[in-house]
Design goal:
By secondary structure, this protein is α+β, with helices and mostly antiparallel strands. The protein is built from five helices and 15 strands. The protein has three domains: 112 residues, Beta Barrel (OB fold (Dihydrolipoamide Acetyltransferase, E2P)); 81 residues, OB fold (Dihydrolipoamide Acetyltransferase, E2P) (Beta Barrel), CATH 2.40.50.140; 86 residues, Beta Barrel (OB fold (Dihydrolipoamide Acetyltransferase, E2P)), CATH 2.40.50.
Length: 303
């Protein structure tokens, strides 16, 4: 993902004629395919902004962030930057697609990514085996996980295998280009698939929950999700418990959001422990009663 000055909006639209629209859609599909396969693409530099170069690829305009150039352009003033970027207009570059966001018309390339796949993939397929720990580089992040270049072969870390805690999007844990150690979970050469895990390189916190928590114990947590039947609170990385709506406050509640919201720090009482099913029952109501009403959720303000 790119951010800050490297973010730019593109006008990747056809002219409205059916043939142009079809070609435009075909180009986006090819971009998504190039993102998945990591194939090398040719694009022509057609302009620049303060964050990098604008490139033309098929019928689309893309962005090459300055941080993704093979050789970083050094400059001390905006004038030097503009002169350096202007000197590259017209160049045909070999690049890899690292981000495709059709909804925002964003197409991002990398020149540095060319060096990520330098290994002998045929030998690597023969050497890869479940249980191995491999060093790789993050090549792409998408909603369902992260693609890791193992030196000629891409493996997938599904979003559920990124960490023991809940991860909404891989960008919360990883960055494109980052080097990481991963555990090989499965290898399917015939389908060209490798399943990887980051979280399995660290201990499962639920395995020792009975050693660290007991019924009746008061613990600190942070509300992570509020639903109609209650709220989930994280009491440590990878361990969350449920505060049922009946355990939020005295009396009847219309909805848990009447007393709690995401991000609220709370003091809660442990009322049940089920490590086999990875369930922890918590009570805010009992904690408040035991502490004389002092352990309470922060007031909810209107958004």
């Amino acid at each position: 993902m790119v951010s800050g000055d490297e973010r730019v909006a593109f006008r990747n639209h056809g002219n409205g004629f059916p043939s142009d629209v079809q070609a435009h859609e075909a180009d986006w599909r090819l971009a998504e395919e190039a993102l998945t396969t990591g194939s090398v693409q040719e694009a022509t530099v057609v302009g620049w902004n303060r964050g990098g170069l604008l490139v033309h690829w098929r019928g689309l305009q893309g962005f090459l962030p300055a941080s993704q150039l093979q050789r970083m352009i050094r400059y001390s003033t905006d004038e030097e930057r503009d002169a350096a970027f202007a000197g590259r207009v017209g160049e045909v570059l070999h690049l890899r697609v690292i981000e495709v966001d059709r909804s925002r018309k964003r197409l991002v390339f990398s020149e540095r990514a060319l060096q990520w796949n330098g290994g002998n993939s045929q030998c690597l397929w023969q050497d890869l085996a479940p249980g191995q720990v491999r060093r790789g580089r993050v090549r792409n992040l998408c909603d369902f996980g992260a693609f890791i270049d193992l030196g000629g072969i891409d493996g997938l870390v599904h979003v559920s295998e990124l960490a023991w805690r809940h991860v909404r999007h891989p960008s919360e844990s990883l960055e494109i280009g980052q080097e990481v150690d991963v555990l090989v979970m499965s290898v399917e050469p015939e389908r060209k698939r490798v399943a990887l895990s980051l979280k399995k390189l660290t201990p499962d916190p639920w395995e020792t929950v009975p050693e660290r928590y007991r019924i009746g114990q008061m613990v600190q947590g942070v509300i992570t999700n509020v639903l109609s039947f209650g709220a989930f609170a994280r009491i440590e990385d990878g361990v969350e418990g449920l505060i049922h709506i009946s355990e939020l406050a005295e009396g009847n509640l219309t909805h848990p959001r009447d007393v709690i919201s995401e991000g609220t720090p709370v003091t809660v009482r442990v009322i049940s422990i089920d490590p086999v099913n990875r369930r922890l029952g918590l009570s805010l109501r009992q904690a408040r009663a035991m502490e004389g009403g002092q352990a309470s959720a922060a007031p909810v303000t209107d958004q």
